[in-house]
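Project standup — Tuesday

K.O.: blocked on the structure for the chain from last sprint. Re-posting the sequence here as requested.
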Amino acid sequence: MTVSPAGESSAVRPARDRTVWLREESNRPRRATPLTRDRIVEAAVILLDESGVEGMTMRHLARRLAVTPTALYWHVATKDDVLDLALDHVFGEVELPAAAHDWRDDVRALTWRWRAVMLRHPWAPSLVGRPMLGPNVLARTEFLQAALVRGGYSGLRLAVVTRLLANYVIGAALTEATWNEAGSPELRGLARRHLAEHPDAYPTLIASGHLDDGRWSEDDLFSGGVDAILAL
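H.V.: unblocked you, prediction finished:
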């Protein structure tokens, strides 16, 4: 049990304040309309792809679905519910690989597919700090840990490497998506020029090819990072 800064026990917090994944479904009957939670989530993903998290409001979502905002609340309690459901929905796009002979291949396949989905939905990496308890997220975490267990990981080492891989995929996708949105590779060229103009301040960055797409690609960096973690 935890206590909030105001001294309120988490055990007595209002149900709508808890993540959608830990909240008991209301017994209140829902109106018999064509609107469903699945339709709301699918529309939310499209809206998030178009407008990002800031542009995804309940009013905009209702307009997209041609309903009133009030109609949405028969199916979801808050905007946070919609974001949690949308994030888990896109995790469902991360296809689970068929188990390979080498457990490392399973980890590589899963992380590559995870990164691809995060880049396809560039708003998603910024939301991964939310409670990750949806069925699609948990199924992929189960696959990842099962592969690591086959590789001999257990206990604290298993927990640490699981977190390292998850944080690495999220961070790599977030960084790459941010550069893409900012106008990479043109921006990278300007950044390299800035480094080159200050050789005394950044000799190591210049020598290492930092931000130099001609030295290695994002795919090379991502692949090397996964392999480096698996070598721990």
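K.O.: great, moving the ticket to review. The chain has two domains: 10-91, 103-230. The two ends are 34 Å apart (CA to CA).
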